[in-house]
Amino acid sequence: MEFTGAKLALFLGHDLLVIQRDDKPDIPFPNHWDLPGGGREAGETPAQCALRETYEEVGLRLQETDLIWAKEYQRTSGKMWFFVSHQPAKMVDQICFGNEGQGWKLMTSAEYCKHPMAVPHFVAQLCEYLEEIGR
């Protein structure tokens, strides 16, 4: 299966975990609010990619069984996967922020979807998931 990367919309309780991207002109969407995830490493499945990146970026170790929704999207960089997981709010105490990005915070999904600095295609994908589940 060919794909370039994967992202995870990770809900901790009712809120979405978001990461503020570095403010560097050489990266896509500098200074924007992003979701955990990133590029594929050799031989990874989409789920393995999303879970590894989540662990590297915020220190949370999830299992493939924690992923409740998945969809493949075509981006200009290639095929990307978008996953969703809902975990208990208390998991926020386990966050150990990595070395990518400026910081993290929790936002409601509505706040993220309306935020001017949210990565636009992740807003669209999150909204598609929320519409599908009737929120």
UniProtKB/TrEMBL annotation:
<feature type="domain" description="Nudix hydrolase">
    <location>
        <begin position="1"/>
        <end position="132"/>
    </location>
</feature>
<dbReference type="InterPro" id="IPR000086">
    <property type="entry name" value="NUDIX_hydrolase_dom"/>
</dbReference>
<protein>
    <submittedName>
        <fullName>NUDIX domain-containing protein</fullName>
    </submittedName>
</protein>
<dbReference type="InterPro" id="IPR020084">
    <property type="entry name" value="NUDIX_hydrolase_CS"/>
</dbReference>
<dbReference type="Pfam" id="PF00293">
    <property type="entry name" value="NUDIX"/>
</dbReference>
<keyword id="KW-0378">Hydrolase</keyword>
<dbReference type="GO" id="GO:0016787">
    <property type="term" value="F:hydrolase activity"/>
</dbReference>
<comment type="similarity">
    <text>Belongs to the Nudix hydrolase family.</text>
</comment>
<dbReference type="InterPro" id="IPR015797">
    <property type="entry name" value="NUDIX_hydrolase-like_dom_sf"/>
</dbReference>
<dbReference type="InterPro" id="IPR020476">
    <property type="entry name" value="Nudix_hydrolase"/>
</dbReference>
